[in-house]
Every structure is written in C-alpha cells, then in structure tokens.
Amino acid sequence: MTSRRSAFAGEVLPAPIPGGIVLEAVCTYREDADTDRLVVVFPPHPCLGGDNDNNVVDSVVAEAAARGLLGVTFDYPGTRTGRIGGRDLFAYWEEMEARQDFGAVVADAVCVVDRVTASFGCRGPVFFVGYSLGAWIAIETAERCRVDGMVCISPPLLQPGFPAAPGGGIPLTYVGAPRDPFCPLEALEAAARRDAATLIVLERAEDHFFRGLEGDVAARVLDALPANGKEKRT
C-alpha cells in the first residue's frame, strides 16, 4: 500500500515506556501546520495485522495532516518483532484479553501522548481516533489524558468487557459498516444510544476493513471531530 502520509513532512519521536522499551510516535504534518492541534490514531490488534501502516490508520493520519493538524500514530510494543518483554506477542495479548484488562497497553499509549504533547508543546485540542481494537485502547487512554473529542471506527463490540464511553462529556462518534461481522450494525446503534454518541454508517463499505474507501472514512472521521478539527484544506 502506498502511504498517504508520504505527501507530508514527518518525524519519529522516541517514547520510552517501562521495561526499557522505546516506542516510536510517528508524527505527520504540513509544513505550515498548526501542530498545537493533535489527532492521535490508535491502530488495531497487532496480532491481526494492526500497525501504524494499516490502511485506515494511514489515511486518517494523512487526512489530519492535510487539514493542518498534527497527525500521530504508533505501534504497540512488540508489533514488529513478535515478542514483548521476552514473551511471545500472541501469548501476551491473549492473556490481556482473557483478563479483559489492557491496562499495560493503555499506560504505554499515555506515554506516547505525553511525549508528543511535550515535544510539540501542544496546548490546543487533542483528539483520539481508534480503529477496531484501537477503539478500546483509545477509550481507556482517554480516562487518563486530556481529550477534546473521539471517534471509534468499527469498535470490537462483541468482545467481552468492551468499555463504555469515557466520562467528562467528551464528544464521541462511532463509525461503522452495514455488514461488519466484528462490529454488527445493531450493536453499534445500541452503543451509540448508550453513550449518547453520534453514529456514522458508511453504506458503501463491505466489511470491517474499508478497502478502497479509506479516503471516505478519513474524511468522515475528521468532519466528525469538534469544530477545531474541521479546518478546510488549503
């Protein structure tokens, strides 16, 4: 896949986490961007092909950059190597899923957000976008960071323990597809009602992966953010 992010400036910030591991915050922006405004995109499950090069993740980050915001994404620990802390990555995530506790990954994500906001001096609005399992991580990370708006794309609502929206009245939008087996439309509608969230259904999407519709998804996601996220392209 050709990265849309390659059309923009970018840099990689090291983000140390416990255990002597260093994650990489991949930052993308226009040369004239207002990097005070931040969009953090949380990728899907790393054992299911989820990384910062994912088609949806890449497109959302690029769309944020195109609109003059600072787009940021990252990989969860061990995504590229298949191991974390001397353990097999699959076993590591399987254990967290069995406990329905992703606290360790959430703590890592907080480190990434803190590193980026400190490095760029971000004092403006901060937005989170989570795709698939990344929606779960984004919601829980929002309980520990300042967040001004959030979009969850095809969240894994069938997975036991999926959290409700974070507190604090954070504006929330759910995005889904009519025939997504991992995020059934009925479940997404129920979650939107429960969380007083806006619901966007991309009728042309065939399934969970939005292949060929990445640009549409990204545009709808950025349009869904509160007013400070809607700057017109120049």
Description:
- There is one protein chain.
- The chain contains six helices and ten strands, in the order E-E-E-H-E-E-E-H-H-E-H-E-E-H-E-H.
- The protein is α/β, with parallel strands linked by helices.
- The protein has one domain (4-229): Rossmann fold (3-Layer(aba) Sandwich), CATH 3.40.50.
- It has an eight-stranded mixed sheet, with helices on both faces. The chain has a two-stranded antiparallel sheet with strand order 5-6.
- Helix 3 (103-120) crosses helix 4 (133-142).
- The longest helix is centred in the middle third of the chain and has 18 residues, at 103-120.
- Mean pLDDT is 93; it is low at 229-234.
Task: Quickly list its features.
234 residues, Rossmann fold, 6 helices, alpha/beta
